[in-house]
Amino acid sequence: MQTAKRTRKLTSFKVVDFLEAARRLEAEGRDIIHMEIGEPCFATAAPIVEAARLALDQGKTAYTPSCGIPELRHAISDYYRQRYGVTVDPERVIVTTGSSAALGMIFELLLNPGDGFLLADPGYPCNANFVRRLDAEPQLVPVSPEHNYQLTAELVNRHWQANTVGAMVATPSNPTGSVIDRDQMSELYRAVASQGGTLVVDEIYHGLTYTAEPLCSALEVAEDVLVVNSFSKYFGMTGWRLGWMVVPEAFVDLFTVMAQNFYIASPTLSQYAALAALQPETLPILDGRCAEFQKRRDYLVPALQKLGFTVAGLPEGAFYVYADVSALTDDCEDFCWQLLNEHGVACTPGTDFGEHRASQHVRFTYTEPLSRLQLAVQRIERALQP
Ligand SMILES: Cc1ncc(COP(=O)(O)O)c(C=O)c1O
Fold it and tell me: Domains, the chain, ranges and CATH?
């Protein structure tokens, strides 16, 4: 059977490879500590589950409008007003099947074959594949601790090429947890706009930040940016497959046509559940979980540093530690497989996130309870003994 050439350019999502290998070991009876997958260990909060149950009892099982139920688009718009003080017309909110669908459609909208798109390296691995899938070119820009692991206006200008049509950032970032403040976001926006390109901002880890100042949304800086968000992380709903994007008004019709064709509508029960996720009584539960993640981060980072991992400061958001392992190994993949197979700790090699010094890094997720993280540190310590 013949397959399209461009699908051969796609690379595997290593975190999922490690997750699946970990699950196979668990099926054999092994105890595995999960520090690979970016998934909160908490069950979805009770009011959200209750809302889904109610929707099921009420028979809400049919397709919804392609861009989401109007109540949810309004509730998301209200959320922007309350949380960020920005007015977003609910029509500009497109509900999607996870933010993954939003990302796929955004690149579909922006890229012709041969176009280039600037992406931070290290960054979320699927973005490069979304770009490759369209016969376009992911233009990886190396970012290091000196840039707080983020694209800057200066990097955008330096790396912009004749075929570049836009740039994408994630704040907080995966895999480093670094954030972009309001001034940096404005500069970034101006740099991309002055090149005639489009800025895409992934805000899926918003709500999971450990900084004194609340994080700014790109929508506070400009209207003509594409902002992606999700119910997966802060809202703790990974398996419900629900996300959203806020897009300029001029693109709403095009995204509607894509949603109609690509998946008809997002999961109905998840949308009714998400209404409860945005209620004022649910948010304190989610903020309590964020405080718990902060405790886990505060334990894990110094514990890893003590073992010989180099971590450039405390990550400001998300639930990841991107650790330099060059003092311990020169092959992060081999290191991760050994940790998993011999010591029962699953983590993700830096090579999942790009090319820049990738093999010298490992990403650890701190979503498991503190006692499990302590056990993981003991196991890693044992693994490092000569
Ligand atoms: C930065 C980033 N963006 C997008 C996604 C996709 O998440 P979802 O499709 O569950 O919303 C992830 C998942 O880990 C991520 O880390």
Answer: 5-44+283-381 (3.90.1150.10), 46-277 (3.40.640.10)
